[in-house]
């Protein structure tokens, strides 16, 4: 449904990604950020789904063509740890946001796992954004303080998550509330990456559909 595109980062360098356009011409935009596996078919599928829901969706390729197979967690960890999160967010993700905003549309940001952490960083550093939806990812405080979040956030977390743990989520929620920030937070009795239907071991269809409905409703409210 979508297509591979190239777009400009604020520093003038080229970045690539997967774009799926909504049927209407003046649709709001959603930037979709990959898991630690890379720009997989599953993430492209989510862009297609956003397009069907009425949003132009662009997933920037933060690994520049590298996609890690689902079983290879060591390689995924290596790719994630070698990613410059600040450059990825303030340049590549911001460039994607600017691309979607070029016709005056409002733009939101969402991401999963690694992309969830990028979404929180983007919420503090990308002025083009109007709203963000976080899926099971929180960056370290030195990367993005809850007090610096500039947009309304919705967040989805799994109770059986040993990476983005319930304790971490409680701390994030507390810090956002203490800073007086807008946060809708949902917890699911599911495992990390429960939205990914390609990973049968962790996919929870009921939780995924509930989260999807909440996310698209939130974006419609804030992006139009």
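^ structure tokens above, recovered residues below v
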């Amino acid at each position: 449904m979508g297509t591979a595109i190239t777009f400009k980062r604020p520093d003038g360098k080229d970045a690539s990604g997967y774009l799926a356009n909504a049927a209407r011409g003046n649709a709001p935009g959603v930037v979709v950020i990959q898991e630690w596996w890379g720009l997989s078919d599953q993430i492209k599928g989510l862009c297609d789904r956003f397009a069907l829901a009425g949003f132009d969706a662009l997933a920037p390729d933060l690994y520049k063509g590298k996609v890690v197979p689902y079983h290879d967690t060591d390689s995924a960890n290596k790719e994630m740890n070698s990613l410059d999160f600040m450059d990825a967010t303030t340049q590549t993700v911001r460039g994607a946001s600017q691309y979607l905003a070029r016709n005056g549309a409002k733009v939101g940001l969402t991401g999963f796992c690694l992309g969830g952490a990028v979404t929180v960083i983007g919420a503090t550093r990308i002025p083009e954004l109007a709203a963000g939806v976080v899926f099971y990812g929180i960056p370290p405080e030195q990367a993005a303080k809850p007090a610096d979040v500039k947009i309304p956030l919705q967040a989805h977390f799994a109770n059986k998550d040993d990476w983005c743990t319930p304790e971490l989520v409680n701390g994030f929620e507390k810090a956002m509330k203490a800073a007086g920030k807008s946060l809708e937070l949902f917890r699911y009795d599911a495992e990390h990456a429960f939205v990914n239907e390609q990973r049968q071991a962790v996919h929870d269809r009921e939780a995924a559909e509930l989260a999807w409905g909440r996310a698209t409703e939130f974006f419609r409210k804030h992006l139009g």
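The mean pLDDT is 97.
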